[in-house]
Amino acid sequence: MSSFGPTSPSNRVRIVVATSVMLTFISYWRAAAIVLNDLASSAFYACGIAEQAVGKSAPWFIVAVMLFSFAVRAVYVESCSMFVRGGVYKVVKEALGGTLAKLSVSALMFDYILTGPISGVSAGQYIVGLVNETFITADVHGWIPGAVHNIFHGTPHLNVNLTSVVIALAVTIYYWRENTKGIQESSEKALRVMQITTVMVVILMAWSVFTLLKAGYNPVPLPTPQNLHFSRESLGFLSHSFPEQDIAKMFGLLGILIAFGHSVLAMSGEESLAQVNRELAHPKLKNLKKAAIVIAIYSFVFTGLSALLSVMLIPDAVRVPVYKDNLISGLAMYMWGPLILRLVFRAFVVVVGFLILSGAVNTAIIGSNGVLNRVSEDGVLADWFRVPHRKYGTSSRIINMVVVLQILTILASHGDVYVLGEAYAFGVIWSFTFNSLSMLVLRFKYKGERGWKVPPNITIAGTEIPIGLFSVMLVLLSTALVNLATKSVATVAGVSFSVVFFVIFTVSERVNRKKHALAKEQMKDHFQLLQSDTVDRGSLGIRPGNVLVPVRDYNTLNHLRWVLEHTDTREQDVVVMTARVSQFGTAAYGLSSEQVFSDYEQTLFTRAVSVAESVGKKISLLVVPARDPWSAIAQTAHNLESSAVAAGISSKTTAAEQAFALGTAWEAIPEPKKQFVLQIVQPGGIVDTFRIGPHTPTMKNEDVALLHRLWLNITREPGLENVHHHDILTEALTRFARDYGARDHDNIVKELGRHGADDGPLPVRRIADQIPTVQPQPTRSDRDDGPHSPKD
Amino acid sequence: MGPIIITVLVRILETTLAIGAMGSVVVLVLSGIEDLQLLFGREEQNHS
C-alpha cells in the first residue's frame, strides 16, 4: 500500500472521517470576549480617523455605525444558524458563483491583513504619545538634564510615526514567531483582557460624567450636511469633480453616506462572531444571540460614547492636531482632576490599548491563517501553502506570507493611522457586503435547516421576501460603492490586493483541479471514505479497550511501529487517528469529508498503512476535525472506550507537559468517563506512562514513612487499634479539604506554591521528625508490614 | 451629459441608502425586542 497501484475495491482501506469538529465549548461570555478583543480595539482609532475625514460631527456617525452594527450582527446570527458544510469560499460560491466568491475571500483577506498593521501602529501611537507627554511634563518640572536637552535640541521626544512603525513591526514579528510555534488562542486570555478593558471603560465613563458636570462640555455638531467638513483626501476621486465643501450641500444624503462610509471601520471585528460560533456551548443559537447582545451593547457604549465624549471634552485646538491618533489618551488628559492622576490614568489607557491592540495583531495573523487554510481546503489555494512546519507542525508558509504582507503594509504606511484606517475600511465594508449579499441569495437558494432569520419577512404569493436582510444589504452596498469613490488610496490598494489574490486563487484552483482529480482517482483505488457525524466504535467496527494512536507528521511514525510491535491486534484493536486542526477563524462553517481528508491526510495514512503492513498487523483509520488536538484525542479516546493512547514525543513540549495537556482536555469531558493510560513513546523505544483521570498518586518514601509513623502512634490510642493506614489518609485529606476550602486556604496555596517553585519535597522530614518513633505492639496484626502505601 | 449621469447615480445611491436605512431601523427594533425577550426569559428562569 505504500505505493499506488491497481487495487480491487474490496481491498480498500476504510477511513472514517468525522465531519463534526471536536471543540472545547466556551460560554457566551468568553465568545463575546474573543470578538470584543477585535471589535473594541477599533475604539482606539476609529473616531480620530472619522473626524479627520468629515469634521467635528464624526462622533454621531460613529454612534450611527454602532447602532447599524446591531443590524449587521443579525445577518451574522442568521449566517451562523445555517447548517451548511464547506468553507467561506464554498458557501459564497454556492450563493454568488466562483468569481464573486474569490473576490469575497480577497476582501476578507484584505480586512484581516490590514487589522494587524492598523492595530500595531495605533498601539505604537498610544505608547509614543505617552512617552512624549511624559518628557514634556518632566521638562516643565526641570527634571531633564541639560545634556539630554542638547542632544534633542530642546525637550526630548520620539518621532511619533517612525517609532510607531518600529513598535508595530516588533509586535508583528513577536506574534509571527508565536504563531509559527503554534500558540493556542485562549478564551481565558481574551476574557482577562476584556475584564481589564472594562475597568478602564467604567473609569473613563464615570470620570467623564464627573468632568461634564464640573467643567462643562463642547457641543457636538449635529450630523447635518451643513456641519460636514470633508478634507480633500476624504473625497477621494470625487475631489477632482467637486469643490470640497460643496458636495455635502449639493447632495445632502450623499454627504451623510460619505461620512458614514468614513466611520464604518468602527464596527470592524463583527465578522469574528461567525468564527466563534461553532465553539459556543449548548444551546448554541441562544448563546450566540446572548454573545451578540453583549458585543453590541459593549461596543456601542465603548466606541460610540467615547467618540462623543472625546469631542465634548477635548478642546478643538488640540483634539485633531495632537490627539487624532490617540484620542482616548487625549480624553484621559482632559478629565477634571490633578495632572498626576490624569497622567496615571493615561498610562492605564495606554497599557489597556497596548493589550487589546497587540491582541488584535495576533487575531489578525490567526484569522488570516485560518481563512487561507480554509480557502486551501476549498481548493482555491495550492496545497503547498498548508505543508506543516517541520518542527512545530503549523502552516508556517501561510503565516510567513501573511506576516510579510503585514510588514510591507506597515512600512508603506509610514506609521500613518489615517491611511491605514481608510484602506482597512475597504476590506471591512466589502467583506460585510459580500456576506449580506450571499445570505440574501441563500434565502432563495438554500433550502436546508436555518435556526433564525433576520426580521421582518413577509410572504407574498408563497414567496418569502426578506425585507430586513435586503435593507441591511442595501445600506452596506451603498456604503461600499460610495467608499469606492471617496477612498482613492483604499480603492487602489484594495482593488490591487484583491486582483492579486484573485489571480492567485484562480491559478491555484486550476492547478488543484487537475491535481485533485488525479489524487481522487488514486484515493478511490486505495481508501474508502466513510463519513460520520460523530466518532463511535460502531462506525469503526472496533472493540472496547483498543489503543488509540494519534499521528500528525508522516516522518515520525515510530510510536505507531512501537505500538504495533507490542500489541496483539487479534485481541486489541489499534486505531490510528489524525486531528485535522481548524484554527480560530476557520470555524464559521463545517467541513465536507473531502475537505477533512485532504492530500496531506492521504499521504499520512498511506505511510501509516505501510508501517502496519511491514509489521503485518491491521489498523483502523480515523480523521477528526478539531480546534485543539488534545481535546480531539481525549474525546476520541472517550468515545471509542480506548484503554490506552500512545503518542510520539512532541518537539515542543516534554512528555509530562503532553500528559498534563491531555489530562486537562480529559477533565473537560462530561461525566461519566473512563480513565485511560497515556504512553509517550520516545525515539529508541523509551516509553513514559501516565494515567489520565483520577488515580493513586506515586507516593514518596518519606510520605509512606510519615504515614506509617502516624499509624503506629494512632493505633496505640485506646479504641483505635483497628485503624488502617487508609483511615488516616482519609481523615487527613478530609481535614485538608476543609482547611483549603476555608480558614487556611492562603497558607496552603503559599506552601504548595513554594513546593512547586522549588520542585522539592514538602517539609515532610521536618514534620516526621517531630513525631516520636514508637515501638509497635508485638500483638498488632500488621506489625510486620513496615511502612507501605495505604492499600489496606 | 456627464453631470446628469452623476446626478442620476447619486440619486440612486441616496434612494438605496434611504430605503436600506429605514428597513435597518425596523431590523434594529424587531431584533432588539427579541433580545429583550431573550434576556427577560432568562431572568424568569433564574427566578423560578
How would you summarize the topology of this molecule?
The complex is a heterodimer of chains A (792) and B (48).
Chain A: E1 13-18, H1 28-39, H2 46-54, H3 58-80, H4 88-96, H5 98-140, H6 146-152, H7 160-181, H8 187-215, H9 232-235, H10 247-250, H11 252-263, H12 272-276, H13 284-313, H14 316-323, H15 327-333, H16 339-377, H17 396-413, H18 417-445, E2 458-460, E3 463-465, H19 467-486, H20 488-526, E4 527-532, H21 537-540, E5 547-550, H22 558-565, E6 574-581, H23 593-596, H24 599-615, E7 620-626, H25 629-639, E8 644-648, H26 655-667, E9 676-681, E10 687-692, H27 701-714, H28 725-741, H29 745-758, H30 764-770
Parallel strand pairs in A: 1-4, 1-7, 5-6, 5-8, 6-7, 8-9
Antiparallel strand pairs in A: 2-3, 9-10
Helix pairs in contact in A: 1-8, 1-13, 2-3, 2-11, 2-18, 3-11, 3-13, 3-18, 4-5, 4-18, 5-7, 5-16, 5-17, 5-18, 5-20, 7-16, 7-17, 8-13, 8-16, 11-19, 13-15, 14-15, 15-16, 16-17, 18-19, 18-20, 22-24, 25-26, 27-30
Chain B: H1 2-47
Poorly predicted runs of chain A are 1-10, 760-768, 772-784
Describe the largest sheet of chain A.
8 strands, mixed
**Mean of residue pLDDT values of chain A:** 84
Uncertain regions spanning at least 5 consecutive residues of chain B: 43-48
Mean pLDDT across every amino acid position of chain B? 81
Measured by DSSP, the beta-strand proportion of chain A falls in 5-15%
Query: What count of helical segments of chain B does DSSP give?
Result: 1
The main β sheet of chain B shows up as: none
Shape of chain B: rod-shaped
Structural class of chain A: alpha/beta
Rg of chain B computed from alpha carbons, rounded to a whole number of angstroms? 21 Å
Number of strands of chain A: 10
Taking the alpha carbons of the first and last residues of chain B, their distance comes to 70 Å
**What pair of chains forms the biggest interface?**
A-B, 33 and 24 residues
**Morphology call of chain A:** globular
Radius of gyration of chain A: 31 Å
Helix content of chain B: over 70%
